[in-house]
Amino acid sequence: MEVSGGLLACHIVCHLMSTTVDPAEESLRLNNTYRTPRPTFDRTQHDHVIVELYCSLCGVTVSGHARHCRACNKCVAGFDHHCPWLNNCIGSRNYCKGSKSTS
């Protein structure tokens, strides 16, 4: 019983950490307009959201491993995927926590 309680506590902590840590690109988090709504991506206007390490939707310079998430509409550092169960992107800032939360 103690082992299962410990595993449950570990799962809850990892789940909370992976859903509350913002995986957004650092330059986007430091930007003052981070919380304001951004336009959605329109394929008729642009082929790609990020061109030469600049995101045209977020208006910031990003790292080489950043991708723009369609669901969250923000650039995520080390983007892996958008997790529908956590309702959050999984990136380099919360990858370890997210993988432990869903396993």
Structure characterization notes:
- This protein has 103 residues and is an alpha+beta fold.
- The protein is built from three helices and seven strands.
- A three-stranded antiparallel beta sheet has the order 1-2-3, with no helix packed on it. A two-stranded antiparallel sheet has the order 4-5. A two-stranded antiparallel sheet has the order 6-7.
- A hairpin with a 2-residue loop joins strand 1 and strand 2 (54-55).
- The longest helix is centred in the first third of the chain and has 19 residues, at 2-20.
- Mean pLDDT is 79; it is low at 98-102.
Q: What is the number of strand segments?
A: 7
Q: Gyration radius, to the nearest Å?
A: 16 Å
Tertiary shape: elongated
Query: How do the helices and strands follow one another from N- to C-terminus?
Result: HHEEEEEEEH
- Biggest beta sheet summary: 3 strands, antiparallel
Overall average residue pLDDT = 79
Strand portion, in percent? 15-25%
Share of helix, binned: 25-40%
> How would you classify the helix and strand content by structural class?
alpha+beta
> Order of strands across the biggest sheet?
1-2-3
| Unreliably modeled segments | 98-102
Compute the number of helices: 3
- The N- and C-terminal alpha carbons lie at a distance of 20 Å
